[in-house]
Amino acid sequence: MASRKRKQQPEAENVSLNDAYSTTTRELQNLEAANKKRATIAETDLVLVVAQFLKELKYFETLKCLEQESLVPFVVTEDKNRIVNAARERKWTVVLQEMKQVSLSPKLVAFVHEQIILDLCLSGDHETAKAIFLKSNALSQLKEGERDRYNALIQTIQQKQKVREGLKLESDKLARLLEEELVEAQPSELLRLIGDACKWKKLNSEWPSKGLISRTTARRAKTLIKQVEEERASEDTSPASKCFHSISFGSSSYAEHVAFSPDGTSVVTGSVDGFVELWNPSSGKLRTDLEYQKNEALLMHRDAVLCLTFSTDSKYLASGCKAGSIKVWDVQTGKCVKKIKGAHKNGVLSIKFVKEQIVSGGYDQLVKVFGMQSGIMLKELRGHSSYVNSVAVLTAPKQVVLASGSGDATVRIWNMKTSDCLKVIKLKAQSPGDSLSVTKVIPTPNGEILVCNRSSALSLLDPKKNFEAIKEFKSPQQEEFISATIDIRGGNAKFVYGATREKSIHCFEFGTGKLVKSITIEDGNEIIGIEHHPSKKMISVITLKGPMKLII
After folding, report:
1. pLDDT digits over 30-43, tens only?
2. Of 44, 96, 31, nearest in space to 75 by CA
3. Which of 94, 272, 462, 496 is at 20 to 30 A from 49, Cα to Cα?
4. Whole-angstrom Cα distance, residue 325 to residue 81?
């Protein structure tokens, strides 16, 4: 890591969600304490409503802290009947999915796991029952509190006989216990309650003549409302079109690559001077909650950073540079946990995490697979006759399939297990001047791949139809697309954005291919890259020798 200062835009007042809410709550509570007719609200109910609000905003770290400090487990769900009915009907997949969203008591979690294991044993699937038993930490509660029941469960699994005496499926009892422990709350319950409280005070002529809250708190509350509006923008069906942050990298630097973290908390840039920086996408400021960035000890390579990617859990960040090295960073600590020297000759152009492996493509025309822990090259995929600009992991039944896009104007589909090339795809030219160099390959939730290949059309390929182009997103002025991204909020593709050399960004409806919006980037030279936020209406755009733009 190295130290340097970045040039940033003027910063607005930074008010955290906790500060804004807690200050407002204190003033409301002081006013209510003076009211002899006030209604009493249980502290746990207040905590749960606040917790639900944090969950809606996806402030999971704050939610975790609230649970730990208040000692109130988060047991709020928007649809209690869903998990209750699933338990009664023994739809265990649904039950387990819903349980991930709440913090049930250890005893109840143990009971759920016990019922799942018994149901599997009754159906004859003792191997799966044994696997769940061995992985379940919750069953230690059963072992400590009900030893006989625990031993009977072991015997049922091991002997592969009928369910032992003293054990039985109790789906109705489980449904009743879940109904008793869970609390149902509708979306925006906190805001609704605050609004109702204000209306009640007005009706009872108890609205203070000098205002309900101080000017400082009012300003903070306004900031809170803005944050809520930004989070709800993810539900907006309109395309991104307005620039709300511009991040400068100084007079002699600019970003070569940009990527959003899967959890949406960071947008990372890799610069021509070797620095890797994580920014807050909501504020457009450097993330100083990361201690190493607060101390200006930034992540860096000795050469220009050409590609970046996050692990699916956003815990790790991998970066590739012009010298051909790959570094893997722990995002929270800033520590380089793995360095792979000489991964590619002359530079690493593309990189992706695939489980415990790293897949990369480079100027040496090769696609390589490295072990993340060992850093050892495990596979080398040959076939391209030019540099590999993009790699992507595709969803496929029973196998891991990789797509690579190259300057040789082809997309190759690989079986990662066998290293076999399953398909070579060469798209047709849209106009005589098209170079067809593939710059980006993007998978969609439905398994198709979007290909950007320096032509006037982005092509959507369907693997179910032998990778035939089933749709094209055409530039209105026959401009050459150099990068693209897809809006996949909520797990569904909504819009396709294509960036052109002429600094235009065209937005198309994914379903119809219809052009719905075009915007022009004013600063910098040609556009280098474009990426979409995983859960919000936001795109990041980087330009040659220019700033990064965040557009909503």
Report:
1. 545 544 444 455 66
2. 44
3. 94
4. 52
